[in-house]
Protein backbone atom coordinates (compact mmCIF):
# COMPACT_ATOMS: atom_id res chain seq x y z
CA UNK A 1 0.00 0.00 0.00
CA UNK A 2 1.41 3.43 -0.89
CA UNK A 3 2.02 5.66 2.05
CA UNK A 4 0.69 9.18 1.98
CA UNK A 5 3.28 11.91 2.32
CA UNK A 6 2.04 14.07 5.17
CA UNK A 7 5.19 16.10 5.63
CA UNK A 8 5.37 17.89 2.29
CA UNK A 9 2.18 20.00 2.67
CA UNK A 10 3.15 20.96 6.20
CA UNK A 11 6.48 22.34 5.05
CA UNK A 12 5.10 24.55 2.31
CA UNK A 13 6.02 28.16 3.03
CA UNK A 14 8.48 27.22 5.78
CA UNK A 15 12.24 27.69 5.76
CA UNK A 16 14.22 24.41 5.88
CA UNK A 17 16.49 25.63 8.65
CA UNK A 18 14.17 26.69 11.42
CA UNK A 19 10.68 26.04 10.09
CA UNK A 20 9.64 29.68 10.27
CA UNK A 21 7.17 31.05 7.75
CA UNK A 22 8.70 33.45 5.24
CA UNK A 23 6.82 36.71 4.89
CA UNK A 24 7.44 39.41 2.34
CA UNK A 25 8.71 42.72 3.66
CA UNK A 26 6.02 45.39 3.72
CA UNK A 27 6.44 48.93 2.38
CA UNK A 28 7.27 50.29 5.83
CA UNK A 29 10.34 48.03 5.98
CA UNK A 30 11.81 49.86 2.97
CA UNK A 31 11.13 53.36 4.31
CA UNK A 32 14.31 53.62 6.44
CA UNK A 33 16.37 52.32 3.53
CA UNK A 34 14.84 54.88 1.20
CA UNK A 35 15.47 57.76 3.61
CA UNK A 36 19.07 56.64 4.13
CA UNK A 37 19.63 56.36 0.38
CA UNK A 38 18.30 59.89 -0.18
CA UNK A 39 20.52 61.33 2.55
CA UNK A 40 23.60 59.59 1.15
CA UNK A 41 22.93 60.52 -2.48
CA UNK A 42 21.89 64.13 -1.91
CA UNK A 43 25.47 65.55 -1.62
CA UNK A 44 26.32 63.95 -4.97
CA UNK A 45 23.11 65.33 -6.50
CA UNK A 46 23.86 68.77 -5.07
CA UNK A 47 27.31 68.63 -6.67
CA UNK A 48 25.69 67.88 -10.03
CA UNK A 49 23.23 70.77 -9.57
CA UNK A 50 25.95 73.29 -8.72
CA UNK A 51 28.23 72.04 -11.51
CA UNK A 52 25.52 72.84 -14.05
CA UNK A 53 24.66 76.31 -12.75
CA UNK A 54 26.52 79.60 -12.27
CA UNK A 55 28.21 80.95 -9.20
CA UNK A 56 25.38 83.47 -8.74
CA UNK A 57 22.90 80.59 -8.44
CA UNK A 58 24.85 79.36 -5.43
CA UNK A 59 23.67 82.36 -3.36
CA UNK A 60 20.00 82.30 -4.35
CA UNK A 61 17.31 81.82 -1.73
CA UNK A 62 15.61 79.45 -1.96
CA UNK A 63 18.49 77.52 -3.55
CA UNK A 64 18.11 75.95 -6.95
CA UNK A 65 17.49 72.20 -6.73
CA UNK A 66 17.37 71.39 -10.44
CA UNK A 67 20.32 71.10 -12.86
CA UNK A 68 21.10 74.07 -15.07
CA UNK A 69 22.61 74.54 -18.53
CA UNK A 70 26.11 75.87 -17.73
CA UNK A 71 27.97 72.59 -17.32
CA UNK A 72 30.08 72.88 -20.48
CA UNK A 73 31.04 76.46 -19.59
CA UNK A 74 32.16 75.35 -16.13
CA UNK A 75 34.10 72.41 -17.57
CA UNK A 76 35.89 74.75 -19.97
CA UNK A 77 36.76 77.03 -17.04
CA UNK A 78 38.22 74.09 -15.10
CA UNK A 79 40.32 72.92 -18.05
CA UNK A 80 41.71 76.41 -18.68
CA UNK A 81 42.47 77.09 -15.01
CA UNK A 82 44.43 73.93 -14.13
CA UNK A 83 46.25 71.08 -15.85
CA UNK A 84 43.32 68.76 -15.20
CA UNK A 85 44.16 65.81 -17.45
CA UNK A 86 47.86 65.86 -16.58
CA UNK A 87 46.99 65.84 -12.89
CA UNK A 88 44.48 63.04 -13.44
CA UNK A 89 47.14 60.92 -15.15
CA UNK A 90 49.52 61.50 -12.23
CA UNK A 91 46.80 60.56 -9.76
CA UNK A 92 45.88 57.46 -11.76
CA UNK A 93 49.51 56.30 -11.84
CA UNK A 94 49.83 56.78 -8.08
CA UNK A 95 46.49 55.19 -7.20
CA UNK A 96 46.96 52.13 -9.42
CA UNK A 97 50.56 51.59 -8.30
CA UNK A 98 49.71 51.95 -4.62
CA UNK A 99 46.71 49.63 -4.94
CA UNK A 100 48.70 46.88 -6.68
CA UNK A 101 51.57 47.08 -4.18
CA UNK A 102 49.25 47.14 -1.16
CA UNK A 103 47.28 44.13 -2.41
CA UNK A 104 50.49 42.15 -2.93
CA UNK A 105 52.49 43.05 0.17
CA UNK A 106 49.57 43.21 2.61
CA UNK A 107 48.08 39.90 1.51
CA UNK A 108 51.50 38.23 1.58
CA UNK A 109 52.21 39.48 5.11
CA UNK A 110 48.68 38.62 6.22
CA UNK A 111 49.12 35.06 4.92
CA UNK A 112 52.20 34.65 7.08
CA UNK A 113 50.45 36.07 10.15
CA UNK A 114 47.29 34.01 9.63
CA UNK A 115 48.62 30.55 8.78
CA UNK A 116 52.24 30.26 9.91
CA UNK A 117 54.10 30.28 13.21
CA UNK A 118 57.42 32.11 13.45
CA UNK A 119 59.47 33.75 16.22
CA UNK A 120 58.02 36.94 17.74
CA UNK A 121 54.79 36.53 15.77
CA UNK A 122 52.54 37.90 18.55
CA UNK A 123 54.94 40.75 19.29
CA UNK A 124 55.10 41.80 15.64
CA UNK A 125 51.33 41.65 15.26
CA UNK A 126 50.88 43.73 18.42
CA UNK A 127 53.37 46.24 17.02
CA UNK A 128 51.37 46.28 13.78
CA UNK A 129 48.19 47.13 15.71
CA UNK A 130 50.01 49.97 17.47
CA UNK A 131 51.04 51.44 14.10
CA UNK A 132 47.45 50.99 12.94
CA UNK A 133 46.17 53.18 15.78
CA UNK A 134 48.72 55.98 15.28
CA UNK A 135 47.49 58.97 13.23
CA UNK A 136 49.12 59.29 9.82
CA UNK A 137 50.03 62.94 10.46
CA UNK A 138 52.72 61.87 12.94
CA UNK A 139 54.78 60.34 10.15
CA UNK A 140 54.64 63.36 7.81
CA UNK A 141 57.79 65.09 9.08
CA UNK A 142 60.01 61.95 9.27
CA UNK A 143 58.81 60.87 5.84
CA UNK A 144 59.51 64.30 4.35
CA UNK A 145 63.04 64.30 5.79
CA UNK A 146 63.57 60.83 4.32
CA UNK A 147 62.34 62.00 0.91
CA UNK A 148 64.81 64.90 1.05
CA UNK A 149 67.71 62.60 1.91
CA UNK A 150 67.02 60.22 -0.98
CA UNK A 151 66.13 62.98 -3.45
CA UNK A 152 62.51 62.04 -4.06
CA UNK A 153 60.88 65.38 -3.20
CA UNK A 154 58.73 66.46 -6.13
CA UNK A 155 58.45 62.96 -7.64
CA UNK A 156 55.63 60.43 -7.72
CA UNK A 157 57.87 57.83 -6.02
CA UNK A 158 57.45 59.83 -2.83
CA UNK A 159 53.72 59.05 -2.97
CA UNK A 160 53.94 55.43 -4.10
CA UNK A 161 56.73 53.80 -2.07
CA UNK A 162 55.72 54.97 1.45
CA UNK A 163 52.16 53.77 0.79
CA UNK A 164 53.16 50.37 -0.66
CA UNK A 165 52.01 48.61 2.54
CA UNK A 166 49.85 49.64 5.45
CA UNK A 167 48.80 48.24 8.81
CA UNK A 168 45.08 48.29 8.05
CA UNK A 169 45.45 46.13 4.95
CA UNK A 170 47.55 43.53 6.77
CA UNK A 171 45.12 43.44 9.69
CA UNK A 172 42.08 43.17 7.43
CA UNK A 173 43.51 40.42 5.24
CA UNK A 174 44.84 38.51 8.24
CA UNK A 175 41.38 38.45 9.81
CA UNK A 176 39.84 37.45 6.49
CA UNK A 177 42.31 34.63 5.83
CA UNK A 178 42.00 33.19 9.32
CA UNK A 179 38.41 32.11 8.65
CA UNK A 180 38.36 31.84 4.85
CA UNK A 181 41.30 29.46 4.29
CA UNK A 182 40.95 25.97 5.81
CA UNK A 183 44.14 24.51 7.20
CA UNK A 184 43.36 21.22 5.46
CA UNK A 185 43.75 22.83 2.03
CA UNK A 186 47.19 24.15 2.94
CA UNK A 187 48.18 20.77 4.36
CA UNK A 188 47.15 19.12 1.10
CA UNK A 189 49.16 21.70 -0.85
CA UNK A 190 52.24 20.95 1.26
CA UNK A 191 51.83 17.22 0.56
CA UNK A 192 51.75 18.06 -3.15
CA UNK A 193 55.08 19.84 -2.78
CA UNK A 194 53.90 23.47 -2.77
CA UNK A 195 56.16 25.94 -1.02
CA UNK A 196 55.12 29.25 0.55
CA UNK A 197 54.78 31.25 -2.69
CA UNK A 198 53.06 28.43 -4.62
CA UNK A 199 50.54 28.10 -1.80
CA UNK A 200 50.01 31.86 -1.94
CA UNK A 201 49.62 32.01 -5.72
CA UNK A 202 47.59 28.89 -6.47
CA UNK A 203 45.69 28.22 -3.25
CA UNK A 204 45.29 31.45 -1.29
CA UNK A 205 44.68 34.07 -3.99
CA UNK A 206 41.64 32.36 -5.59
CA UNK A 207 39.99 32.09 -2.14
CA UNK A 208 40.61 35.64 -0.91
CA UNK A 209 39.41 37.51 -4.01
CA UNK A 210 36.42 39.13 -2.21
CA UNK A 211 38.71 40.38 0.56
CA UNK A 212 41.18 41.71 -1.99
CA UNK A 213 38.35 43.43 -3.88
CA UNK A 214 37.31 45.34 -0.77
CA UNK A 215 40.90 46.25 0.09
CA UNK A 216 41.52 47.33 -3.49
CA UNK A 217 38.49 49.65 -3.52
CA UNK A 218 39.44 51.12 -0.15
CA UNK A 219 43.09 51.65 -1.11
CA UNK A 220 42.34 53.13 -4.54
CA UNK A 221 39.83 55.62 -3.15
CA UNK A 222 42.20 56.64 -0.34
CA UNK A 223 45.11 57.13 -2.77
CA UNK A 224 42.92 59.03 -5.24
CA UNK A 225 41.60 61.41 -2.57
CA UNK A 226 44.88 61.91 -0.72
CA UNK A 227 45.60 65.61 -0.35
CA UNK A 228 47.87 66.44 2.60
CA UNK A 229 50.93 64.34 1.75
CA UNK A 230 50.96 65.26 -2.00
CA UNK A 231 50.57 68.92 -1.00
CA UNK A 232 53.67 68.61 1.19
CA UNK A 233 55.98 66.61 -1.03
CA UNK A 234 55.08 67.69 -4.59
CA UNK A 235 56.78 70.95 -5.56
CA UNK A 236 56.82 70.52 -9.36
CA UNK A 237 53.66 72.00 -10.95
CA UNK A 238 53.75 69.34 -13.68
CA UNK A 239 53.68 66.51 -11.12
CA UNK A 240 50.69 67.61 -9.06
CA UNK A 241 47.97 65.14 -8.27
CA UNK A 242 44.33 65.90 -8.99
CA UNK A 243 43.29 66.91 -5.47
CA UNK A 244 46.17 69.39 -5.17
CA UNK A 245 45.44 70.80 -8.61
CA UNK A 246 41.75 71.23 -7.78
CA UNK A 247 42.68 73.23 -4.69
CA UNK A 248 44.08 75.89 -7.04
CA UNK A 249 40.53 76.66 -8.16
CA UNK A 250 39.96 78.38 -4.82
CA UNK A 251 40.98 81.94 -5.50
CA UNK A 252 42.40 84.18 -2.79
CA UNK A 253 39.62 86.79 -2.77
CA UNK A 254 36.71 85.25 -4.64
CA UNK A 255 35.87 81.64 -5.36
CA UNK A 256 33.69 80.45 -8.21
CA UNK A 257 31.92 77.62 -6.41
CA UNK A 258 30.29 76.39 -9.61
CA UNK A 259 33.72 75.80 -11.13
CA UNK A 260 34.96 74.17 -7.92
CA UNK A 261 31.97 71.84 -7.88
CA UNK A 262 32.54 71.02 -11.55
CA UNK A 263 36.13 70.05 -10.84
CA UNK A 264 35.02 67.92 -7.91
CA UNK A 265 32.39 66.22 -10.07
CA UNK A 266 34.92 65.43 -12.80
CA UNK A 267 37.26 63.98 -10.16
CA UNK A 268 34.49 61.77 -8.75
CA UNK A 269 33.52 60.15 -12.05
CA UNK A 270 36.54 57.76 -12.28
CA UNK A 271 35.90 56.67 -8.69
CA UNK A 272 32.26 55.87 -9.46
CA UNK A 273 33.24 53.81 -12.52
CA UNK A 274 35.93 51.96 -10.56
CA UNK A 275 33.56 51.28 -7.66
CA UNK A 276 30.79 49.95 -9.91
CA UNK A 277 33.19 47.55 -11.62
CA UNK A 278 34.99 46.23 -8.55
CA UNK A 279 31.87 46.18 -6.39
CA UNK A 280 30.25 43.91 -8.98
CA UNK A 281 33.26 41.62 -8.84
CA UNK A 282 33.19 41.74 -5.05
CA UNK A 283 29.53 40.69 -4.88
CA UNK A 284 30.00 37.99 -7.53
CA UNK A 285 33.00 36.48 -5.74
CA UNK A 286 31.22 36.62 -2.38
CA UNK A 287 28.17 34.81 -3.75
CA UNK A 288 30.35 32.23 -5.49
CA UNK A 289 32.23 31.61 -2.26
CA UNK A 290 28.97 31.20 -0.35
CA UNK A 291 27.69 28.68 -2.90
CA UNK A 292 30.94 26.71 -2.76
CA UNK A 293 30.82 26.81 1.03
UniProtKB/TrEMBL annotation:
TM ranges: 28-46, 88-111, 123-145, 151-172, 200-221, 258-279
Stated family: Belongs to the binding-protein-dependent transport system permease family.
Q: Is Membrane found in the keyword set?
A: yes
Top-level taxon of origin: Bacteria
Quote the protein name from its UniProt record. Answer: Carbohydrate ABC transporter permease
- Record's subcellular location: Cell membrane
Q: Which residues form the ABC transmembrane type-1 domain?
A: 88-278
List keywords of the entry alphabetically: Cell membrane, Membrane, Transmembrane, Transmembrane helix, Transport
| Originating species | Kineococcus gynurae
Q: What membrane topology term does the record carry?
A: Multi-pass membrane protein
Amino acid sequence: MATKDLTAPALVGLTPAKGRRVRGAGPWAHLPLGITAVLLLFPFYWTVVMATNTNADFYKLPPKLVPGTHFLENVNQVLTSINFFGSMVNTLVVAVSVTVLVLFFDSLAAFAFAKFDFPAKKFLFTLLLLFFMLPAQLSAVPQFITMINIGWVGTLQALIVPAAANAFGIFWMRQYMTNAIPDEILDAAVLDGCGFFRQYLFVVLPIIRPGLAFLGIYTFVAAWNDYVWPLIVLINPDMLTLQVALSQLNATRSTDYAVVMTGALLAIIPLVVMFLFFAKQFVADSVAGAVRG
